[in-house]
């Protein structure tokens, strides 16, 4: 598939996806959705790739779903076609995906960042769910993921007023993993992604899966799920290699088996 709204580049074992609709501050339309889903499916299947980074421009990660595309839609078309339900497929990507956010991450842009496994924020990043100002609401999971990330008080205030938060407030609230200078954002995200891609592949999948399980389970079920996956990793060749490499004071050499 030839892409028009995203750029995809492989650097070693890391796939860098850049949202590229500068004329609309990377607003998310149907085309960007289908291109991103295609790119993520290819990334997930490609055994040479271990981690992905999604970024935008220094001005905007994404300023929301495309308002111009939604403007004339009615209930029948939105509900009938389950508008944007395709984004759910994005969250089924099994390998880790880092959001490298500079500038605006608003509405669907904030929601896309939250669908990634963690967010690295540039010091100029701004997050918000301003949909209420358009007389609508988050529709790609924002009311749920934001609430889980920052708690009810801040999420409720952000959704009801549309107030944006800056990178420092987002970090204090637990929405982002780290803040880095805007000029070095992509480089830092790529470095972090390369670290992840350098880990044993099955352990990477298992760690992602068990952290995500914390959103869906009780504590007892979650701890049980973690333990079962932990046990399962002892059936891998890479566990033997990893522990032997530690004892022999050398780096592990992974086979993904
Ligand atoms: N959609 C379409 N076009 C956009 C969007 C958008 N979300 N955001 C910006 N643009 C366009 C502008 O229209 C403008 O285009 P043009 O030059 O042709 O007029 C261009 O990008 C530049 O934008 P501005 O001139 O407005 O730039 P400013 O620097 O003055 O302002 C802002 C930047 C503050 C980011 C401003 O553009 C803004 O407020 N944008 C809209 C933010 C917003 O409301 N986002 C939420 C959208 S709704 C949503 O995301 C719902 C998600 C759930 C959908 C899932 C349904 C199932």
UniProtKB/TrEMBL annotation:
Keyword set, alphabetical order: Fatty acid metabolism, Lipid metabolism, Lyase
UniProt EC number: 4.2.1.17
Molecular function (Gene Ontology), one example: enoyl-CoA hydratase activity
PROSITE patterns xref list: ENOYL_COA_HYDRATASE
Coiled coil segments of this chain: none
Family annotation (InterPro entries): ClpP/crotonase-like_dom_sf (IPR029045), Enoyl-CoA_hyd/isom_CS (IPR018376), Enoyl-CoA_hydra/iso (IPR001753), Enoyl-CoA_hydra_C (IPR014748)
Catalytic EC class: lyase
One Pfam short name: ECH_1
Gene3D superfamilies noted in UniProt: 2-enoyl-CoA Hydratase, Chain A, domain 1, Lyase 2-enoyl-coa Hydratase, Chain A, domain 2
SUPFAM superfamilies: ClpP/crotonase
GO biological process: fatty acid beta-oxidation
Catalytic activity: a 4-saturated-(3S)-3-hydroxyacyl-CoA = a (3E)-enoyl-CoA + H2O; a (3S)-3-hydroxyacyl-CoA = a (2E)-enoyl-CoA + H2O
General function of this protein: Could possibly oxidize fatty acids using specific components.
NCBIfam families with a match to the protein in the record: PRK05862.1 (NF004517)
Family, as annotated: Belongs to the enoyl-CoA hydratase/isomerase family.
Protein name: enoyl-CoA hydratase
Taxonomic path: Bacteria, Pseudomonadati, Pseudomonadota, Alphaproteobacteria, Sphingomonadales
């Amino acid at each position: 598939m030839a892409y028009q709204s995203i750029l995809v580049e492989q650097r070693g074992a890391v796939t860098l996806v850049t949202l590229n609709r500068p004329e609309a501050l990377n607003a998310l339309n149907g085309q960007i959705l289908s291109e991103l889903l295609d790119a993520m499916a290819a990334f997930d299947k490609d055994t040479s790739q271990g981690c992905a980074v999604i970024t935008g421009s220094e001005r905007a990660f994404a300023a929301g779903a495309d308002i111009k595309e939604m403007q004339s839609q009615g209930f029948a078309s939105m509900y009938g076609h389950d508008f944007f339900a395709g984004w759910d497929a994005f969250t089924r990507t099994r390998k880790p995906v880092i959001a490298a956010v500079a500038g605006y991450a608003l509405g669907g842009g904030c929601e896309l960042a939250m669908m990634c496994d963690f967010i690295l924020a540039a010091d100029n990043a701004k997050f918000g769910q301003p949909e209420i100002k358009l007389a609508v609401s988050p529709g790609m999971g924002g009311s749920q993921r934001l609430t889980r990330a920052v708690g009810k008080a801040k999420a409720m205030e952000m959704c009801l007023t549309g107030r944006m938060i800056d990178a420092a407030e987002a970090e204090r609230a637990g929405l982002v993993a780290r803040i880095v200078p805007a000029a070095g954002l992509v480089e830092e995200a790529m470095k972090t992604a390369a670290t992840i891609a350098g880990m044993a592949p099955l352990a990477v999948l298992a760690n992602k899966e068990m952290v995500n399980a914390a959103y869906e389970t009780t504590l007892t079920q979650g701890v049980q799920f973690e333990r079962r996956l932990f046990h399962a990793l002892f059936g891998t060749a890479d566990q033997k290699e990893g522990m032997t490499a530690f004892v022999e004071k050398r780096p592990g050499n992974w086979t993904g088996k």
